[in-house]
Design brief:
single chain; alpha/beta; Aspartate Aminotransferase, domain 1; 2 domains; binds 4'-deoxy-4'-aminopyridoxal-5'-phosphate; cytoplasm; amino-acid biosynthesis; succinyldiaminopimelate transaminase activity; Probable N-succinyldiaminopimelate aminotransferase DapC; aminotransferase
């Protein structure tokens, strides 16, 4: 393994899912739903397969039906207008979108400022691109993890090439506010930075929180690559259909990298996702309501079990602090948890460069059936 990748080893998600299987534990580690997305969307995939749509290489940028549907979705939800031919690119999940964007836009030696904790592929992709990651740590403040705007500003240097943003944020569940996003946008414009924004949990925001795409802020549309995922929005993580929307020059750059990563992927599923994106608002509302109820169930259960809970405003993850349980090392806690309670969770420290800043935090996924969450809570209560 080369020096760029040597520090990364096996992704925590594979490691923890294997641990769950091996120990027969309830897997609240890796974030994937245990209920598949809508039947009609699965039927659409079957129809595409049967009708011979997408069984051979789809077009490099994605099938026109899906690019048109992505553009229509951005217009309908956010009033953002993108040309399906030049401003939309279909990718093999958001994972490839992140990789291709960083490989295309980062020069060796460039600095990439990312919110910490960060989704694990960010660090690896920045490294593969030869860039240097500059983490800005979200810190606990009155029940949620917040961005310190002065720290963000201080992290930008003459070598900074781009800001890598994620809202709603995995693993903390933070949804960046209008004020925070305004400040990020102003900084990007002032320092002439590109922004890659991972908005795969755009539909999972709860209560009064609102998802505001960075591309809607003044001066941002031209400098922002926005990433979405059918895995997250329609509960088909195995299909690996994602996309970016951006200005033509940025899409063209990302495509240059993407064509040599997978070239194309997921032919028949692209047609099905095109239909999914056109589902009525009631689908998105019901999906959000289902996850809100699950968030409440797991958050309350974890609090009763003795964890300090950071009730998430978005995503399907809840971050907890294990110190009230008399623990301080999330790694050790998560390694022992299958044995002690038959539950698997993720130590947030894996998402940090400043490991000590993440040490006491542990993430649980709640995109699981209610009976599964109930059983997990019952088991975790025995810890105390
Ligand atoms: N970004 C974030 C923040 C995620 O949580 C995930 C999925 N865990 C991804 C990207 C990857 O998405 P996909 O499965 O579409 O590749
Ligand atoms: N995004 C999911 C999570 O955060 C996992 C994705 C993966 O396994 N690569 O849990």
């Amino acid at each position: 393994l080369n020096r760029r990748l040597a520090e990364f080893g096996t992704t925590i998600f594979a490691e923890m899912s294997a641990l769950a299987l091996r120990t027969g534990s309830i897997n609240l580690g890796q974030g994937f739903p245990d209920t598949d997305g809508p039947e009609e969307v699965r039927e659409a995939a079957v129809r595409a397969l049967r009708d011979g749509r997408g069984n051979q290489y789809p077009p490099g940028p994605g099938v026109p039906e899906l690019r048109t549907a992505v553009a229509a979705h951005q217009e309908r939800r956010y009033g953002l207008s993108y040309d399906p031919d030049t401003e939309v690119l279909v990718t093999a999940g958001a994972t490839e979108a992140i990789a291709a964007a960083l490989l295309a836009l980062v020069e060796p030696g460039d600095e990439v400022v990312a919110l910490e904790p960060y989704y694990d592929s960010y660090a690896a992709c920045i490294a593969m691109a030869g860039g240097t990651r500059v983490p800005v740590t979200l810190r606990p403040h009155e029940g949620s993890f917040r961005l310190d705007l002065d720290e963000l500003r201080a992290a930008v240097t003459d070598r900074t090439r781009l800001l890598l943003i994620n809202t709603p944020h995995n693993p903390t569940g933070t949804v960046l506010t209008r004020a925070e996003l305004t400040a990020i946008a102003e900084l990007a414009v002032e320092r002439d930075l590109l922004v890659v924004t991972d908005e795969v949990y755009e539909h999972l925001v709860f209560d009064e929180a609102e998802h505001l795409p960075l591309a809607t802020f003044p001066g941002m549309r031209e400098r922002t690559v926005t990433i979405g995922s059918a895995g997250k929005t329609f509960s088909f993580t195995g299909w690996k259909v994602g996309w970016i929307t951006a200005a033509p020059a940025l899409v063209s750059a990302v495509r240059s990298a993407k064509q040599f990563l997978t070239y194309v992927s997921s032919g028949p599923f692209q047609y099905a996702v095109a239909e999914a994106l056109a589902l009525p608002d009631s689908y998105f509302a019901a999906f959000r309501e289902d996850m809100r109820a699950k968030r409440d169930l797991l958050s309350a259960g974890l609090a009763e079990a003795g964890f300090e809970v950071f009730r998430p405003a978005g995503t399907y993850f809840v971050t907890t602090d294990i110190r009230p349980l008399g623990e301080s090392d999330g790694f050790a806690f998560c390694r022992a948890l299958p044995e002690r309670a038959g539950v698997v969770a993720i130590p947030n420290a894996v998402f940090y460069d400043h490991r000590e800043a993440g040490a006491p935090f542990v993430r649980f996924a709640f995109c699981k059936r209610t009976d599964v969450l109930d059983e997990a809570v019952a088991r975790l209560k025995r810890l105390a």
